[in-house]
Amino acid sequence: MDKFLNLLFSGAVSGGIYAVMAAGVVLTYQTSGIFNFAHGAVAFVTAYVFFQLNTGLGVPVVPAALISVLIFAPLLGLALDRILLRRLAAAPVYARIVGSIGLLIALPALALWLVEALGNTVLDFGLPVTTGSGSGTVRGIGPSPRETWHLDAIGLKGVSLNSDQVAVFVAAALAAIALWLVLRHTRLGLEMRAVVNRSDLAGLRGVNASRTSSAAWVLTMMLAGIGGILIAPLFQLADQEFTLIVLGALAAVALAGLRSIPIAFAGGLLLGVLQNIVYGYGDTILPGFLNDLAGLRAAIPFFLTVVLLFVIGRNRGSEGRSVADEKPMADHRDGLPRWRRVLPWAVFVFLFVAFTLQWFPWGWAQASDFESLGILAPGMALAIVFLSFVVVTGLGGMVSLAQGTFVTAGGFVAGWAVNHDFGIDVPFVASHGKINFAVAAIMGAVAAGALGALIAIPVRRLGVLALALASLAIALALDLTLFQVQDVSNGQLGWTYPLPRLNLLGITTFDLSQPRTEVMVLLVIFGVMTLGIHNLQQSSSGRAALAVRSSSVAARTSGIAPARSEIALFAVAGAIAGFGGVMLGMTNGSFTNSTATPITGLLWLAVVVTFGIRRPGGALLGGLAVMATTPVFNWISGWSFMPSWFNDLTGSTYFAAILFGLGAINLAKNPDGLFALVGSQRLERRRKKERLAHVARAELDVHEVEHAPAWNGSGPGADDDDPMHLRALVGADSFGHVDQVVPSEDAALALDDIVAGYGDVEVLHRVSLHLARGTVVALLGANGAGKSTLCAVTAGLLAPTSGTVTIDGRDVTSLAPYQRSRAGVMLAPEARGIFPGLSVEENLEVLLRSKEDRAKAYEIFPILGERVKQQAGLLSGGEQQMLSLAPALVDPPAVFVADEPTLGLAPMASAEIMDAIRRLRDLGSTILLVEEKAHEVLEVADTVAFMELGRLVWMGPSDQLDEERLAGTYLGMAT
Amino acid sequence: MKRKRVWIWVAVMAIVGLVAATAGSAGARVPTQTTKGVTSSTINVAGLVSKPTFASAMQGAQARFDRENAKGGVFGRKIKIVDTADDKFDPTTNVQETRRVVSSDNIFAIVPTVTVVLGASDYLAQQKVPFFGWGISSGFCGNAYGYGFTGCVAPKTPVYGNTFMPAAGAKALGKDPKGLTVAIIAEDTDAARSGLGTLGTAATSLGMKVVYSKGVVPAPPATVGDFTPFSQAIMSSNNGGPPDIVIMLFASIPSTLGLQGALQAAGFKGPIENTQTYDPQLAAPSKGGSVYVQFGAFETADTVPGVKQMVTDLKKANAPLGVLSAVGYLSADMFIAALKKTGKNLTIDAFQKAASKLQYNVSKTAGPTSFPKDRIQPGVCGTLVTSNGTGYDVTVPYFCGEAVKAKS
């Protein structure tokens, strides 16, 4: 019992490490929507700064820690937020994953590069380095040497704690509590959660999303930084270890459902206890064969993660689960003839072959045996591995972080098969008892494909993020256990493949150990696979995969079985990766369990994304680039005509990592990677040309019919390619009577000459609308007339192409939504202006800061008072609309815009809402009421405005309303 | 229709590719010269180390070559390190880098070879390039071109146990090994677990009782935050009490320091031995821990001429005094010994003939190592030092244990 208590206690203390990391990851996810794979990297960088300050510059421990955590980490957070994270938050899930992986690669490399290459080599500062035996030990923030306390006195016999461990626990607990308090009980926390919940609405409610984003990152970076400094003295100061500790805490993160910081914290402590119990009792509780499996103890957190993700994460499978959950990027090759698409690649392949086979007479254009071919051969093998990313992520929309595992599985199976004596002798299959290399390679591919299918069966039910995490956890678990078994990995030095050497009819020899032969064979295999993938894309199964990617539910209704399609994609990708692994082993000379570690797999994903994950071309260039980078930079660093500092900086091993990391971060959003940078500009030009041609044609038609110029060219921005042009063709003012009763400077809200739209589609064509103070204007019109667009322009959600928005005589056209909200515009958007993830009270709190104001709101809508703690998303439609209107009634805005407030409500609820709007008018607000159902609003409105096809066609007092026009508007017969 | 066209393409590409491939491979192989890298006045060698941690091995080797070259070289040939292959601790990179230096540089041998991931050993044998270094990778074992100055320390499947650590523990206690209890703990990997068995055999052969022998501590990159479970198990392994000696076979320095700290905190007073923490920077955190140093420790320079020479040479070359520079130095020293044994007529065959029967011994500094025996057996000699918090004290001066064959 003593032993158990001891393990429990000391486990909880050491679990503080997991707790602080898990809490940090959840905090980041909660405040930014990004699962930050780089959390460990941030922790590392902060600890590294601490190490440099303390050990390097001799700053005492406390100031060094304070500088690192309170100055460096927040600044890093601000900088990253500005440069990167804000943009990433709006990107698809997949891009967020890859973007943070890019950060994981780039950030530590940047820190090490700055210190070692710039600081030490170039500037000769003599800073301490973390590599080299015995160096990189960081002192803790407690006393040094650390003190040890024995807990015999309090009944824990034989338990001792050292000051570093206690520091971890205490500081972690304090930090987590403080952050939880900030998040739950401060204005900033509320705003952060509001932004994550619905960032567009948060802007409408006056929340400056960019400021909260910065604040969130400052906080999370500080938490990561504290974690980093705390754990540094316990482990080695190496970025991979920090990352693995964070990944080890994944189980706690999964337990918290990525949501609750207290649960994540408690989960971290539990994890520590669990590990201690496994370490302490593993021999007795584990069955013999498991106990014999080396590495199992360390892998337990990862197995646990998979199980927890499966239990907790599975019902979120329906949430946007794909690369394509946003509109796919335009294909820059659209409309090009087939030969034009193929030509660049044909030229590339020709030059590649010519270089490899030394067809050109010039020395520099001939591949040399060990320099160029040593890059090209493994590069081509890696390109084949990268094709598997194209299949599973590019085509299937699933972010698998286990591709390295399939590579390893393939490499090991082939290694075993080709070295094993089967005692058979079959022509073309086996000779002298051993099967030949080609057959072994296929066996490797089949095994990896089977593993892929096996993993796909459980994980395919998960959402994008959970799938990524689960696949990573599986990869880490296998890496720690199965792939470390001597008989599987053939020891640390791995398997070597005896390569075939065939004498072809005595004319020539086919020798696969020759790099030149390898390159050519790999090129052919790559080509064949590319054709296969192309074929797959065009085939019915490829179409099915695309359909499943876009919407699994819709695909199912069309008779596609998503399970089969997804498992098949995983299996194909696994098989390609496995085959690629064998090829990698062939070109490298051996295949070991460090050839494709899970972390390497992350790097690879970043590279493929950099070069474009949707096309085999990206895989090809990515593979070659990975292998070529180091030699190329070595070559550049040898340029004698450049200053030596340039050579030192580019020659650093960290330089390439920085570039790939930054590439992944920048290109994560773009599935075509680097290609798109070139291609999309060209596509833009081509489209522009087409549009101009179109306009010219239309103009010509008009000229012929009317024999008169259709526009006078005086409108704003009337360039040749301006969409305005088209608007002019239809004639802006040829429709009914628009009576602007109020001059714009007297109006509470004035919209003048608003032109706005989405992308190429222009929705509003020079709309002008003025609202007199204290009036209610009903904006009527059929579906698609542009009413909601006008609301969006008013609130600042959509920037108009031209025209101005004025509130109380102040031009607010250039202001962001939150600034307009503060200037007095409040928009209740279509489909309920509430934060579904926040409670009723918190929803009100966003606009009504004082408790008294909120009490007033409950007076106005007593039903809300009964639901204070309830999540707003669980309220009924009417209650939600009340919640959305309540702040306006307590603190009336100058201009209130309601976009279809009664949409989808029962008549009783509708009446209550209309009543509320009347009250709001009595309180002095100017109201723009957008409705499709004219009947109800006419009772409230003073003025009625009609919209039709993006134009305001009639405006006047509601009592002068032309009933016929009203009917005509809705029947689509207006003239 | 479409599908058919694709397959035609595939067939065409395959044929073109294969023809091109076979055409490319004709006559690409460069025959290995027997005296590559050797002239009448120079011998070119390249280093193979895992940078950055093992980088100072290069300085150590250079220090030894400097002294020899200053004396005019071996039979008039000066030894030049023309390149360094860096495997970054990765066996695949090891092969690639080795192929690079062997094929693009004109070298005779690889000196020093200091890496735990010597994936290139088969390739080196195939290319007839001898490699001299620290035998801490299985690549040194059973390879006719491999020369580890410590023999074969880490074979893939250990057969021999080295009695040095248990014997040194007994000497440190000043007791007869018979009847002493020893706990051996290793990391949770297959390789480390198999090392436990042979070390246990060695301890048993001295009459010791192995009360604890487990490979349970998670190996890097996994990390351990709390060593209580392990220290508790060890402290109660001897019928509920602590053993006399604890031996840690870890690859991770933080684990070594962590468990040592936990044992000391739990009140363990006997020798706690490891193989890793002989490094000035680790003297403070490893205070009280004992280290098996596989050569004559620097602290014995005053009494041992061989160590004194080594320290003088290293200092002259501005090399740090550490394990890595020492092993680099001694690898170079053994290479020079082999060159001297070969004689003036230096061809690869002559060299192999002489070196494969080399007896290498620098009194109380390195060796005796004898080939070919020590391509299978581990070197069993060394010094046991103990950290005093600021430096190291010699606990047991240079001596040799025995290689004990385990029952298979």
Task: Characterise this structure.
The complex is a heterodimer of chains A (975) and B (408). Chain A is an alpha/beta fold and 975 residues long. In chain A, 61% of the residues lie in helices and 9% in strands. Chain A has a six-stranded mixed sheet with strand order 12-13-14-9-15-16, sandwiched between helices. In chain A, α13 runs antiparallel to α18 (464-480). The longest helix of chain A is centred in the last third of the chain and has 34 residues, at 673-706. Chain B is an alpha/beta fold. Helices cover 36% and strands 22% of the residues of chain B. Chain B contains eleven helices and 16 strands. Chain B has helices at 2-25, 56-70, 91-104, 121-126, 164-173, 190-205, 228-235, 253-265, 305-316, 323-342, 348-355; strands at 42-49, 78-86, 109-114, 131-133, 146-148, 160-162, 181-187, 209-217, 245-249, 272-274, 290-293, 359-362, 366-370, 381-387, 392-400, 403-405. In chain B, strands 8-7-9-10-11-14-15 form a seven-stranded mixed sheet, with helices on both faces. In chain B, a hairpin with a 4-residue loop joins β14 and β15 (392-400). In chain B, α2 packs across α9 (305-316), α2 (56-70) runs parallel beside α10 and α7 crosses α8. Chain B is globular, with a radius of gyration of 24 Å. The termini of chain B are far apart. Mean pLDDT of chain B is 84; it is low at 24-33. The chains are: A alpha/beta (975), B alpha/beta (408). The interface between A and B is large, with 93 and 93 residues.
